[in-house]
Amino acid sequence: MDGTPTNEVASFEELVSAGGKRRFTTATLPIGRQTIRIRSLFERELSDYQAAIQAATGERERHNRLKAANRQFIAMCLVDSNGNRIVPANEVGRLADLDAADSSHLYDACVEHCGINKQDLDDLVKNSEPTTPSEEPTS
Length: 139
Hints:
rbstp2171; 139 residues; globular; mainly alpha; disordered C terminus
């Protein structure tokens, strides 16, 4: 298939056989001026990320996960010219020291390239925050 739409309806086998291929793009940081390579995500990677954000149990753990959510998402997407992740798992926290304009630009570029609705990701983080008594539904 060359990406040209057809009038035929795909079968399940056609759907799953077409998936599983990484896509790549680049973004240039507005402040740091580095060009960064971004990879697409598989559905399982996105689901694992979303589950990890919501899995926090204690208030402190939840707070820490929410603070790191954007950095974790960016780290999942940044790769070298061979497609290998450039941010080591134990170094994701260092992304907190990026200029906010650069990190926001990276986050937006990753969201767009992965085909994710930014509002859905923002809502995921927002909805995983504990509610205060004034936000809890009344019965």
